[in-house]
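Work Package 4 report. The design task specified in the project plan requires that, given a folded chain encoded as structure tokens, an amino acid be chosen for each position. We show below one input record used in the internal validation round.
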């Protein structure tokens, strides 16, 4: 639906402004995730945390930077340059930037995988029978990604349950339901990152084969269906996040899918130019 809408607007004067608005919204989302990552560090990091511990906790923000950079490069390649391509020196710089961005996204996948393995591992039952026994110990209550530092002011307002669980690798306590939900959301994080990494790789392959004049055939069809399936999976995960109240994650998924829909339209236009040149039709 978003792709059809973009195709309708493609030749209109508002097309450029829609793109500018999209990139502005993506930047605003980056600001939101940066603030969210910063907020969580107060619950998850101690004074003994290493530099890499900080990198891991700001993993989402770094991932957003990588994707925004990659999206801009793809936009330039498919809309501004298309057939003209980069100069030799520029191509080397762009290759290095792409390599860094894919490494950052790959690191996000690694962090989410290790987090998933940790939380799927054996969970320790907390020795505390009352959350107020944990006052001022630096531990927090977690449920549905919502953290509350356990203090004398907050402990009475937290759920009183017969048993609590410690989240592996974190100074966090939760309930049985909270632990189960944390596991499911960890799966969502991992699958979503893997899906987006596959989208990025598929787009890179699509651009490279288009540069070589391949505009149709089994490879193009397979890539299109692969990306369509990945977008559908990502959208389904966004809806799942929204079901648990995380509407901003669904909003973020829609923005990024819309951004990649622009790239898909750019690719279609680029392929049409190549096909028209092959049959001698002058470009408009």
């Amino acid at each position: 639906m978003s792709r059809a809408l973009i195709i309708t607007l493609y030749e209109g004067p508002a097309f450029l402004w829609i793109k500018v608005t999209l990139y502005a919204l993506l930047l605003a989302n980056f600001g939101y995730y940066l603030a969210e990552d910063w907020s969580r560090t107060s619950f998850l990091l101690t004074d003994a945390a290493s530099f890499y511990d900080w990198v891991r906790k700001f993993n989402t923000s770094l991932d957003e930077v990588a994707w925004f950079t990659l999206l801009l490069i793809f936009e330039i390649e498919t809309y501004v340059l298309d057939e003209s391509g980069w100069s030799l020196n520029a191509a080397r710089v762009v290759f290095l930037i792409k390599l860094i961005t894919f490494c950052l996204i790959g690191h996000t996948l690694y962090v989410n995988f290790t987090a998933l393995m940790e939380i799927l591992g054996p969970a320790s039952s907390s020795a505390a029978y009352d959350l107020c026994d944990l006052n001022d110990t630096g531990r927090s209550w977690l449920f549905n990604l919502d953290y509350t530092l356990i203090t004398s002011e907050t402990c009475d307002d937290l759920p009183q349950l017969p048993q609590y669980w410690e989240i592996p690798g974190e100074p966090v306590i939760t309930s049985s339901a909270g632990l189960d939900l944390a596991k499911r959301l960890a799966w969502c994080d991992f699958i979503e990152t893997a899906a987006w990494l596959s989208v990025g790789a598929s787009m890179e392959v699509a651009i490279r084969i288009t540069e070589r004049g391949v505009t149709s055939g089994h490879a193009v069809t397979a890539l299109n269906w692969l990306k369509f399936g990945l977008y559908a999976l990502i959208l389904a995960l966004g809806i799942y996040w929204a079901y648990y109240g995380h509407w901003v994650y669904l909003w973020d998924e829609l923005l990024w899918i819309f951004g990649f829909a622009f790239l898909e339209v750019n690719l279609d236009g680029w392929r049409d130019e190549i096909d028209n040149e092959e049959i001698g039709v002058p470009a408009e």
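The mean pLDDT is 84. Validation will be extended to a larger panel in the next phase.
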